[in-house]
């Protein structure tokens, strides 16, 4: 794949035949474009992926588009800023949604930029990639889209606001019976949506409300797709809950209408394998921390213990602007300790899911610790104010500490029981 570093070979070939040297030069069409197609253009194209508000600033589909960015592209890949991925190389290969370039690919791009960013022979170019039109949904073409009950005006004077919206029960036409979800994707309808926490609720026989957690979305997150045999239940007659966090600058003329939505895809009961694993998600959280002013690396920890043999499907650290790093560690009942994930430079704009390619089985009694550091110093360019101590709080300028963890029971069940919270009120969350 990588050419131009075989110096001895190039010299010999060059001595024998002038043409061979030109062929060995790193070019866009032959060497660089295939890498960009595989790793970049999903986001970097016109109408590219809107990853919960993170939209790539330029298209990288053609030579004309990439040429002016050659230096920036080389720097972004050499610094490992792009493609966006924040786990250390130690975890290489473990997560199916991993986005990384090989060292050879990085060298190819930097060599191309340093040697004058040549176009090369147009005939070397791979066929352009085609993108399925899913209406912008990253998880695929939806079976059902549900919107907030009505548009909401995020008024001029608002900087941060939390608002809950609950739809009417889904109709028989929308959802004729209980269905298992194969994907869930919340979508902000305006750029003032910071995050959405989702849920479904139904009344049980006694009239109590049962609430089912239905994922969430924050900047840089792509929505949730379950593997075959896994899912979350959407009960017939559910109301859909939107717990919205809106964030913007306050001021005259900044008000925005918003009617965010969620898309669902269902497992096909006839064609797809039966769902035998109901997926639950917990947040490993510490609500009582206090980060001192001007502290560069304040540690905060929290833990949960699995009561049953469980299978971990994904991890997802959530912090705000002072978040510096995050670690998940498993303490097994036999005394072994294993680092599950280490994100040394947490980026507030990329709230990623780390989804296991091979789900991680852990025995009952395993304790998972989530530890994070916060940078409340002036070194942190995002820090809104280093001179105050900081606690848990909703606004983006305050902090959160949530180690999300998605899992299911390891034992399959022909009648999997989704985890539901019981509430007597309406619109809880
Ligand atoms: C998941 C979507 C996504 C993927 C995949 C992705 N990018 Fe980006 N890229 C973005 C977004 C969003 C930004 C702007 C925000 C930021 O810098 O984080 C960006 C910014 C950049 C910038 C910085 C532009 C500037 O202002 O200097 C460069 C260069 C870049 N990307 C190159 C690449 C290359 C090269 C690849 C593939 C190796 C790639 N990106 C893969 C979404 C993506």
How does this structure look, described?
The structure is a single chain. The chain is mainly β and 429 residues long. The protein folds into 3 domains: 118 residues, no CATH class; 124 residues, Jelly Rolls, CATH 2.60.120.230; 130 residues, Jelly Rolls. Helices cover 13% and strands 33% of the residues. It has 6 helices and 23 strands. The strands form 6 sheets. Strands 3, 6, 9, 10, 13 and 14 form a 6-stranded mixed beta sheet that branches. A hairpin with a 5-residue loop joins strand 18 and strand 19. Helix 5 packs antiparallel against helix 6. The longest helix has 12 residues. The radius of gyration is 24 Å and the shape is globular. It starts with 6 loop residues before the first helix and ends in a 6-residue tail after the last strand. It binds heme C. The site of heme C has 22 residues, from strand 2 and helix 5.
Helix-strand sequence: HHHEEHHHEEEEEEEEEEEEEEEEEEEEE
User: What is the fold named in CATH at topology level of the largest domain?
Assistant: Jelly Rolls
Portion in strands: 25-35%
Low-pLDDT stretches are 1-22, 425-429
Q: Assign the CATH class of the largest domain.
A: Mainly Beta
User: In total, how many domains does the architecture comprise?
Assistant: 3
Distance between the termini: 52 Å
Helix amount, in percent?
10-25%
- Tell me the total number of β-strands: 23
| Shape call | globular
Q: Report the major sheet.
A: 6 strands, mixed
How many alpha or pi helices? 6
Q: What structural category do the secondary elements indicate?
A: mainly beta
């Amino acid at each position: 794949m990588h050419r131009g570093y075989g110096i001895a070979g190039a010299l010999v070939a060059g001595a024998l035949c002038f043409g061979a040297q030109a062929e060995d030069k790193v070019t866009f069409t032959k060497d660089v474009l295939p890498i960009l197609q595989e790793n970049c253009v999903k986001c970097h194209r016109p109408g590219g992926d809107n990853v919960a508000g993170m939209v790539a600033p330029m298209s990288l589909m053609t030579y004309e588009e990439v040429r002016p960015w050659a230096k920036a592209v080389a720097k972004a890949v050499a610094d490992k800023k792009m493609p966006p991925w924040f786990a250390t190389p130690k975890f290489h290969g473990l997560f199916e949604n991993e986005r990384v370039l090989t060292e050879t690919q990085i060298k190819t791009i930097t060599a191309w930029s340093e040697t004058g960013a040549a176009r090369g022979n147009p005939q070397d170019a791979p066929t352009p990639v085609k993108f399925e039109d899913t209406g912008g949904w990253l998880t695929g073409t939806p079976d059902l889209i549900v919107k907030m009950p009505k548009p909401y005006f995020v008024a001029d004077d608002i900087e941060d606001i939390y608002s809950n919206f609950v739809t009417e029960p889904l109709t028989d036409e929308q959802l004729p019976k209980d269905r298992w979800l194969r994907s869930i994707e919340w979508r902000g309808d305006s750029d003032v949506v910071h995050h959405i926490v989702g849920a479904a609720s139904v009344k049980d026989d006694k009239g109590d409300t049962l609430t089912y957690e239905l994922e969430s979305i924050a900047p840089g997150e792509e929505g949730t797709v379950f593997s075959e045999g896994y899912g979350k239940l959407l009960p017939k007659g559910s109301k859909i809950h939107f717990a919205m966090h809106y964030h913007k600058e306050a001021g005259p003329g900044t008000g925005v209408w918003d009617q965010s939505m969620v898309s669902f895809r269902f497992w096909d009961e006839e064609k797809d394998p039966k769902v035998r694993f109901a997926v639950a998600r917990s947040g490993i959280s510490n609500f009582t921390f206090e980060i001192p002013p001007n502290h560069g690396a304040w540690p905060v920890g929290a833990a949960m213990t699995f009561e049953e043999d469980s299978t971990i499907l994904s991890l997802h650290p959530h912090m705000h602007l002072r978040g510096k790093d995050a670690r998940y560690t498993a303490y097994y009942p036999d005394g072994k300790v294993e680092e599950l994930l280490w994100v040394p430079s947490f980026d507030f704009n990329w709230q990623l899911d780390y989804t296991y390619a091979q789900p991680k089985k852990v025995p009952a009694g395993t304790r998972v610790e989530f530890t994070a550091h916060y940078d409340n110093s002036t070194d942190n360019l995002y820090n809104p104010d280093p001179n105050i101590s900081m606690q848990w709080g909703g606004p983006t300028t305050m902090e959160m500490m949530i180690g999300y963890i998605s899992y299911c029971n390891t034992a399959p069940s022909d009648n999997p029981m989704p985890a539901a919270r019981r509430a007597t009120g309406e619109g809880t969350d």
